[in-house]
């Protein structure tokens, strides 16, 4: 969503108290005379406020960049997407003022700016406390806030996870600004006296994080490239998605094999799998099989038995999680950041068409319940995309008798098994997109009951054993 610079100026002036407080925060952390890169620089006021020796502002709006360059000729501004920026130099500070709320792929952007970092670079970012979402929506409705596209409402846990996945470690986290409007002595009392206090600080509007590159990130990336990967694709009545699963798949590590397990389809999926295997045999290592049992869980286990890679990834053949995002699952496991990578579709906005409200509520309920049972925070328990190392899967399979064959979906089997082995489980944020072919095989009410039964079973076996 592009906004005219005159409109940006209008909204800045209307909420000047808020913007000046933001500038005060960044001036506290950024030492004057440093090299500073700002992603999402807007009108350039913040970059000017931190007084860099060299400042580079990047924004996707051409008109905003033109206006910024005209207003601040001592700084440099470029039209660039934060996910693609490549200035071929390093900076002392990289600042993102609410930029993570707008970026399509936050992890990609954070990984991309790693090449702009030296060992002492500080990444400073601010974002809005998710508890303020209804208040800010109301402010927009009554004309006190600029109309905006749908945002990423990230919690600190989400931001910390994204930073860690991208090779950073959090050094500092805080919150400020209880009252973002200038009401003279009232605002002073709220923001200078009350806002820093325990409990009340949790209610502040702005959250800020200071992070730095993880010292071992470069060596871990070298390790990632030496490992191999197996992507297991269970497929039932998904003939129209099979070829896209191949053509959109990134190369993962030293070698990637793709394993299709066809599950008693009625739309020619098996014929399509065979055709695709023959067509791409010279470019991809593709293995295929027809399922011997029933249910996705059975298909996944059959695929794992055929897999030879160091890292196993499950990709649902409806492609509502994009094949392009498999790289994040592979890197999370191959780098050792986590031992079970769990896809999470609830970090970024999801339309009501793609995931109706009732489905979203059910998903959040089961995620909360499973998090309680496993003593591990999981934000999306029902995303089919997961990853685990071959070594840890072998341990999980050997220990499967503790739970038994109770899960037809395979998701709970992996999550509970990983928890039983005390494996480190982490969410991998993905964007949930509409399927382009076919319809869902899920019977929501029936399978919701099955999920609840599995949770009760897990409670007995883990929490109340």
Brief digest:
Keywords: Glycosyltransferase, Transferase. This protein is α/β, with parallel strands linked by helices and 465 residues long. It folds into 2 domains: 5-215, Vaccinia Virus protein VP39 (Rossmann fold, 3-Layer(aba) Sandwich), CATH 3.40.50; 220-463, Spore Coat Polysaccharide Biosynthesis Protein SpsA, Chain A, CATH 3.90.550.10.
Question: Could you explain how this protein is built, in words?
Answer:
- This protein has helices spanning 5-14, 16-29, 45-49, 62-71, 106-112, 133-141, 156-165, 185-194, 217-225, 242-247, 269-279, 296-306, 326-334, 357-374, 390-398, 411-420, 444-463; strands at 35-39, 54-59, 76-79, 91-97, 117-128, 168-176, 206-213, 228-235, 255-262, 285-290, 311-314, 340-344, 386-389, 425-429.
- It is globular.
- Helix 14 packs parallel to helix 17 (444-463).
- It starts with a helix and ends with a helix.
- It is built from 17 helices and 14 strands.
- It has a seven-stranded mixed beta sheet with strand order 3-2-1-4-5-7-6, sandwiched between helices.
- The protein has 465 residues and is α/β, with parallel strands linked by helices.
- It folds into two domains: 5-215, Vaccinia Virus protein VP39 (Rossmann fold), CATH 3.40.50.150; 220-463, Spore Coat Polysaccharide Biosynthesis Protein SpsA, Chain A (Alpha-Beta Complex).
- Strand 8, helix 10 and strand 9 form a beta-alpha-beta unit.
């Amino acid at each position: 969503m592009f906004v005219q610079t005159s409109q940006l100026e209008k909204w800045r002036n209307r909420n000047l108290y808020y913007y000046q407080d933001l500038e005060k925060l960044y001036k506290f952390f950024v030492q004057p005379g440093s090299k500073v890169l700002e992603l999402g620089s807007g009108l350039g006021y913040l970059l000017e406020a931190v007084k860099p020796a060299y400042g580079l502002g990047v924004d996707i709006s051409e008109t905003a960049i033109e206006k910024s360059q005209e207003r601040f000729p001592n700084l440099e501004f470029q039209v660039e997407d934060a996910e693609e920026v490549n200035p071929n130099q390093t900076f002392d500070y990289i600042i993102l003022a609410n930029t993570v709320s707008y970026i399509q792929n936050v992890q990609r952007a954070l990984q991309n700016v790693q090449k702009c970092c030296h060992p002492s670079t500080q990444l400073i970012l601010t974002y809005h406390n998710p508890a303020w979402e209804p208040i800010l929506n109301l402010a927009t409705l009554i004309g006190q806030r600029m109309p905006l596209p749908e945002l990423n409402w990230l919690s600190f846990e989400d931001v910390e996870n994204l930073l860690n996945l991208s090779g950073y470690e959090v050094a500092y986290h805080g919150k400020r600004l209880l009252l973002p409007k200038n009401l003279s002595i009232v605002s002073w009392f709220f923001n200078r006296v009350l806002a820093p206090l325990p409990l009340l600080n949790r209610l502040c509007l702005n959250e800020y994080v200071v992070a730095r590159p993880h010292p071992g990130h470069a060596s871990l990336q070298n390790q990632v490239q030496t490992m191999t990967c197996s992507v297991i694709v269970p497929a039932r009545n998904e003939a129209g998605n099979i070829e896209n699963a191949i053509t959109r798949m990134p190369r993962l590590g030293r070698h990637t094999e793709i394993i299709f397990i066809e599950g008693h389809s009625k739309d020619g999926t098996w014929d399509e799998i065979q055709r695709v295997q023959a067509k791409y045999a010279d470019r991809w290592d593709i293995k295929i099989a027809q399922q011997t049992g029933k249910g996705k869980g059975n298909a996944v286990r059959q695929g794992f038995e055929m897999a030879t890679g160091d890292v196993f990834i499950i990709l649902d053949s409806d492609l509502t999680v994009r094949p392009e995002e498999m790289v994040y699952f592979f890197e999370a496991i191959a780098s050792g950041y986590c031992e079970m990578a769990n896809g999470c579709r609830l970090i970024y906005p999801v339309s009501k068409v793609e995931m109706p409200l009732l489905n979203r509520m059910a998903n959040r309920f089961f995620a909360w319940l499973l998090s309680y049972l496993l003593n591990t925070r999981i934000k999306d328990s029902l995303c089919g995309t997961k990853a685990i190392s071959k070594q840890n899967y072998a341990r999980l399979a050997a220990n499967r008798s503790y739970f038994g064959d109770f899960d037809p979906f395979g998701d709970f089997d992996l999550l509970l098994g990983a928890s039983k082995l005390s494996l480190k489980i982490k969410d991998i944020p993905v964007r949930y997109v509409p399927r382009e072919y076919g319809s869902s095989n899920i019977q929501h009410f029936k399978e919701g009951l099955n999920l609840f039964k599995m949770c009760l079973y897990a409670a007995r076996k883990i929490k109340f054993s």
